[in-house]
Amino acid sequence: MNFTNLINLHELEFQSEGTEYSHYNSNSSKITSKDLGAKKLFFDVKELLPRQLSCPYHYHSDQEEVFIIIDGEVTVRQNNECKILKKGDLIFFPNSEEGAHQLFNHTDNPVRYLDLTTRFGTDVCKYPDSNKINAGNGQIYKITDKVDYFEGEDEVPEFWTKRKL
Questions:
Q1: Measured between alpha carbons, how far is 1 from 113 in angstroms, rounded to an integer?
Q2: Residue 16: inside a domain
Q3: CA distance 91 to 79
Q4: What is the pLDDT of residues 52-102, one digit of tens each?
Q5: pTM
Q6: Structural domain contains residue 3
Q7: Which of 27, 92, 122, 164 could cross-link to 47 by cystine, CB 3.0-4.6 Å?
């Protein structure tokens, strides 16, 4: 049998997730869950470089996440508290404000971790530090633009007023 659903975490190749911001610098495994045939579960192995942040502090409305530290040490920020995670640690982030998280590699060595995420429904990602939301497909907005549910709905839409029903 050809095990196309099997990878070795210590033999992975990585590619840069480079950004224009010098404090966000990490690599992602070239092989991800999609390559192994997963449809409702996402995972990849991340390599967070020394003195770097993983991503902006955030939480999800629909996705749950698990990080498993494969190699090294990293500081996790969750609910504005910090803890050092080490090789073998597993941390779960619920899909709520209590699951807000961010990693910082406080060491001089890269840290590798498995990022495991559920993929059901429509996820909205919220960023408390920058007061933004990510509505998916790269659509990111400032929360300050938040409006009432009925904003712009003062009148019956023209669509209905022009119809004879």
A1: 29
A2: yes
A3: 13
A4: 999 999 999 999 999 999 999 999 999 889 999 999 999 999 999 999 999
A5: 0.85
A6: no
A7: 27
